[in-house]
Design a protein that fits this description.
The chain is an alpha+beta fold. The protein has helices spanning 5-8, 16-20, 43-48, 52-73, 94-115, 126-131; strands at residues 27-28, 34-40, 81-83, 87-92, 119-125, 137-138.
């Protein structure tokens, strides 16, 4: 099923450099999936003003909030995410996109109230990305045996 795309994706157990150097290791994201992003606005300025830990905590808290909600809602679906220090990008199946986006929008209020940082949020369907002529691909890397537990 499409919403089990990520957990069904075969992990590569090759060195990261090798993985990144071969496009054939990457597969297309299903066009029914969505990209949900959250990013701290003006994070560079916040870091320069010595709020680096607040920026990181706000971004990691977003990950925790989303993953907790997914586990509560659909504990069998794995959602890949990419942490960028001042934000996070999630790849989300159709059945979870509204739930995830609601969590991120609510978390935005928490970040503003508690960290005085503006969390910019957005979403786009993978089908819109493909229709624009762009591509989006993913690979899974297994660096240790812990992935076998998932």
């Amino acid at each position: 099923m499409s919403h089990h795309f990520y957990q069904d994706l075969k992990p590569n157990s090759i060195p990261l450099k090798t993985l990144l150097n071969h496009k054939s290791n990457f597969v297309d994201i299903p066009n029914t999936w969505h990209v949900v992003v959250a990013d701290i606005e003006n994070s560079t300025i916040a870091v320069e003003q010595d709020f680096h830990s607040d920026v990181n905590l706000a971004a990691t808290g977003c990950i925790i909030s989303v993953l907790n909600k997914i586990k509560e809602t659909d504990d069998k679906t794995l959602v890949p995410y990419f942490f960028g220090g001042d934000g996070v990008t999630f790849l989300v199946p159709q059945n979870l996109v509204d739930i995830v986006f609601e969590v991120v929008e609510n978390y935005k209020i928490h970040v503003l109230e508690n960290f005085k940082l503006n969390l910019k949020v957005g979403k786009v369907s993978v089908s819109d990305i493909y229709e624009s002529g762009s591509m989006i691909k993913i690979a899974k890397l297994q660096q240790n045996k812990l992935l076998d537990c998932l």
